[in-house]
Amino acid sequence: MIEAQPFLAPDFQSKEPRELALLSIVTQSFFQPFSVDDNLLVILTALTSGSGVGFNRAMLFRTDGDKLRGGKWLGPRSPEEARMIWEVLSTPGLGYLEIIEHNRWLLSRGADAMSGKIAPLEFSLTRDNLTIPVTAVAKKELLLIREASREPLVDARFLETIGVEEFLCVPLLFQNEVMGEIILDNAFSRKPIQPKDVKLAGLCGLMAANYIYTASLHQKMVEMERMAALGEMAMFITHQIRNPLTTIGGFTDQLLNGQADEAKRRRNLEIIRGEIRRLENIVFELGHFLKFDPKRPEPFDLKAELRSVLEAMEPRAAAENREIRSEIDGLLPPVLGDPTAVGEVLRNLIINAFEASPAGSRIEVCAERKDASWVVVGVKDAGHGIPPEARAKLFTPFFTTKERGMGLGLLYIKRVMDACGGTIEVESEAGQGTTFRLGFRSQEEGRPET
Amino acid sequence: MKRILIVEDEEALCLLYKEELSAEGYEVTTARDAEQALEILRRERFDLIVTDIRMPGRDGVELITEIMGLRKEVPIIINTAYQSYRDDFMTWAADAYVIKSSSLDELKAKIRDLLSR
Question: Picking from A37-46, A79-88, A367-376, which range would have the lowest pLDDT averaged per residue?
Fold first, then answer.
């Protein structure tokens, strides 16, 4: 027998050993699309929830250059609040998602109080700074502090902030790198910290450090990718601008040399004007692309939009000797999207099809209801088809096969479709032409039953 | 008369180079892409080749590699809008690397220089 088991247990089993409960809270949170901050909150939650390690309060310091800086402080502000929270959190059947939600709320209202208190705290991470709490990261050791006020190494400002005699310092280490430190106490229950609490807290510290390290690597990678994309864009634009500049410069010099006759002067001026228009177009397309800001998707009449685009294209079709054949289902339901942006998408797709198809050929446009929730618009050209290696790069910015293209058109289309929850598919075979299919989410609720 | 082959995909630039270099006293042939350039090179001899790098169809760097095989002693100038290919080791095989600009002086000087060696 084969039985699928859920990765994510919906709630804590009170019978389970708390080590297991703790591990499951922390590891499960990494499955969630949580932000780095939220995941760190989960770790603090694991350390403070009754079904986890059960400390009263947890504070997190993050490494920032050569400083250890105060971040979050999770926990109740007073014994009364502690009692109330424990009551909430011991509700039977409460899942970890609810606990995290609760803590997020706790943190947001405590932001000015609890976390606000440790935000101004920062300690220098130099080798000779052996005050508490820095020693734990400097020596890479878990430190349990008792009778803190009698211990001269405890930083006075820190002691005043935490206000307890007993606390545990957990360094967050990944290999030899210091990611931060967590400090735990039992300010309200006044229960002495037990050796097994220390063990579990140490384990949490390792997970937290590993997580922070991975998250920071990921962030670096995203930044590097962004820089690489920016570099690619700058290179492409440089090229696109230098070519017309070279042409303009060269033909202008010819004019200035004064050897050109009237016909040549006129020709040069026409070339120069053409290149200036090209530069203008580059600026226009880039600006258009960069300010992309689609409105919230709303239901609109796709067939009316499509018909008006087709109508507007008719004169160009006639002038360039191409036929547009359209088949539009008269009963298309409204679809979701930004009508203006979608209109532009349809126009761009049809213009692309024009440019790909030879004179005298036919472009086919169809719109039909695929099922209860999707409407599909297809635009088929009569071109050569797109070779597979180019197909893979179709939606990459600045990829173009047109001599004067910016390589932003299809990317724009994809962004519009993404923004309205739609799809775009390409079907292309050598010699058979290319079909672009746009999938729109339809809104049939308002449609009378037929 | 020295013969120059220009490989350039932009129509207006082809025209400009042809006029300007002819005025300098060279015999100029233009090719609009790599395939056409290779075809011309197989049947004609030139004293110098000026080529762009990124063009539709076959890549200019690939073209240079192939031309290197065909050209024997013919010097090559890379004339491009891209600065970045200067670091591409394939382009080191070229005799000069000229970045396109609104003045043709540098290109003309490099051509004069290479043809007088």
Answer: A79-88
For chain A, domain boundaries = 18-220, 229-290, 298-441
CA dihedral A334→A336→A337→A343, nearest 10 degrees, is: -20
CATH 1.10.287.130 fits A229-290, yes or no: yes
Task: Give me the half-sphere count of Cα atoms (radius 13 Å) on the Cβ side of residue A387.
Answer: 5
Residues of B in contact with A234 (CB under 8 A): none
Contact by Cβ (8 Å): B4, B46: yes
Q: Name residue A228's amino acid.
A: A
Dist CA A167 CA A157 (whole Å): 15
Task: pLDDT band for A92, please (50, 70, 90 cuts).
Answer: low
The residues that bridge with B48 in the sheet, in sequence order, are B4
Q: pLDDT digits over B36-91, tens only?
A: 888 998 899 999 999 988 665 666 677 777 877 776 688 999 898 887 777 776 66
The CATH superfamily label for domain A298-441 reads: Histidine kinase-like ATPase, C-terminal domain (3.30.565.10)
CA distance B111 to chain A (A): 16
Q: What DSSP string runs through A67-125?
A: EEEEEEEES-SSHHHHHHHHHHHTSTT--HHHHHHHHHHHHHHHTTTHHHHHTT-EEE-
Tens digit of each residue's pLDDT (9 = 90 or more) over A201-232: 998 898 889 888 988 888 898 888 888 878 87
Rounded Cα distance, A226 and B106, in Å: 35
Which pLDDT value is given to residue A186? Answer: 93
Q: Which residue of A has its CA nearest to B54?
A: A239
Cβ contact A260:A384 at 8 Å: no
Q: Inform me whether the C-beta atom of residue A192 falls under 8 Å from chain B C-beta atoms.
A: no
Q: Are A61 and A105 in contact (CB under 8 A)?
A: no
Residues of B in Cβ contact (< 8 Å) with A248: 102
Tokens matching residue B17: 């180079």
| Region B3-115: CATH code | 3.40.50.2300
* CATH class, range A18-220: alpha beta
- The pLDDT assigned to A69 comes to 92
Q: Residue A124 above 70 pLDDT?
A: yes
What is the helix (H) or strand (E) element at residue B4, kind and residue range? strand B3-7
The half-sphere exposure of A446 on its side-chain side, counting CA atoms within 13 A, is 10
Strand-pair category, B3-7 with B48-51? parallel
- Is there a contact between A208 and A179 (Cβ–Cβ < 8 Å)? yes
Domain ranges of chain B: 3-115
**ipTM field:** 0.87
A412 — phi, psi (to 5°)?
-60, -45
Residue B56 contacts A, CB cutoff 8 Å: yes
Q: Which residue of B has its CA nearest to A267?
A: B12
What's the pLDDT score for residue A368? 92
Given A235, A242, A249, which is nearest B103 (Cβ)? A249
